[in-house]
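TL;DR need structure tokens for one chain.
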Amino acid sequence: MMFGATLQAAVTILVATALATYVWLRAARTPLRGPLLGLLLALILWSSGVIWRFAAHADAVAFLGVLITWAGVVCVPPCWFLLASRYARVRALDRRPGLALVLFTPAAMSWISIATNPWHELFYRDFSAHGMHDRGPLYYAALAYGYSLVLAGIGLFLVAPRRTAGAAPGRDALLVAGAVLLPTVLSLLYIARILPIPYDPTPGTFLLSLVVFIFGVFRYQLLEVLPLARGDTVDYLREGIVIADPSGHVIDSNRAAVALLGRSASASRGMRLAEVLAPLGVDSGTLAAVQARFESLPADAGAASIELRGHGDRRIEIAARCLSRPDGVVLGRLAVLRDRTDERRSEALLRQSQKLETVGRLVAGVAHEVNNPLAFVRANLNHLERVSEELVKRIGAETQGAQIQELVELPQIVAECLDGIDRIKRIVDAMRRFSRPHGEAFAPVDLNEVVRVALRIAELHRNERVVVEAQLSEDLPRVHGSATRLEQVLVNLLMNAKQALEGRETGRIAVVTRRAGDHVEIEVADDGPGILAEHRDRVFDPFFTTKGPEQGTGLGLSIAHDIVREHDAVLELLPSDASGARFLARFPLPPG
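>> reply
TL;DR here they are.
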């Protein structure tokens, strides 16, 4: 008896330790991790106690082995039931982790009664190194509790596949049934003294069941044949789901809602909807209106989606519905949250691109038509300038009279006209560059070097009032494009930042390059007055400018946007909660 029990215990410890390591390393693959590890650790304790007890030479030392054994024994039924509940998708234990602790309370009391048995002898009345004899009422109470959990777990294992017809193949269902019934049947046969084995085979048979489960779950997807339960479906939806009771107090939320709101499901429980949505940064008046609408929905009615605007121009769409029974009794309320930030940003970029494309075609025609008359107007003015200069020489400075004085001023008037014509020509040239596709061959470009060249061109280092911080990422991958064209983009952004800081005693401009996944980014930020909210949607519009007539044409950012688009990249104005403006250019990395 001693050899067989010790051999079984040693094998159980070795195999259970290996399986526990395997489950721990593969933990992310299944929600069954916790119960499986608990069962394996309980079996290791159980078997370690058996070896301790049979290796002891005195009853007092053997009693320590009994305590170790029963520490594992009393933990097996609760862990088994938790494993079954996870398999059957019993949501109550997931939503209320405290219930799992309740399952272990009688088990802990059983172990305490064993440890204190020498004082009351209610668990057993006779003990030796070979076992406990003349068992007391607390032993049978612990046995009844343990087997009730084991049998309840078996019921969950057997009933769960039948909740949905045809969910699991017959072979796999039989495998599950065999795995869950084997240890219980053999244990009962041993207790009834029917099994012709002199030692308890329960640890070994439980281990065999766990081998079936572990390799079935991880290698053969044994438990994955069950369809997702409703709770799992809600948990893995990409939309955030917030569930409230009829009065509007939150009782649960799924993973997407937790990620969206930055608040755990347990922390949100009991709050009202406005409190749950507060981390988004939406103003309190809007949240109060949303909450009132949410809590006033009549039975089985839904509310049209509304879009909330939070911190950093974050856009969250929220829809609500009141759920009720057929008899009209309200069961609860449901809010569905969708993060529309990236979608709205993409829509804005698409509209901007379409606008620039349309304006580009128009500008190409206008520039062509304006350029021709400009040429002969300037030619005539040049001729008039020469004639006026010659005329002034012939008249002479000593000649008096108002009419003669006007003739003397004629060269200055013509020169001013030529300056105006040159300004118009610069605008037309900028319009033509904006509208004309660029034909320069692309090549690998070092964006860090582009930034360095742009900083030299912008001559920011000569302005002592402005501090320039260039944070250039090392080993930045090269992108495919035109270095000259990209330098034009950077110079434009830097000069805009410089002009935004004019008139201030101090200023700061930061240029950052970094890799972000399969893209490379350049960010240009300043701590100037920033861009007004009503202007943010128009900064890339052609001819839109907040500068004076002598400071800009309003084409710089439009041209920069168009150059970046030529590189299959994106230039956007980032939202900023602080002062200043932040522009970000994102370039895709070439394949391979």
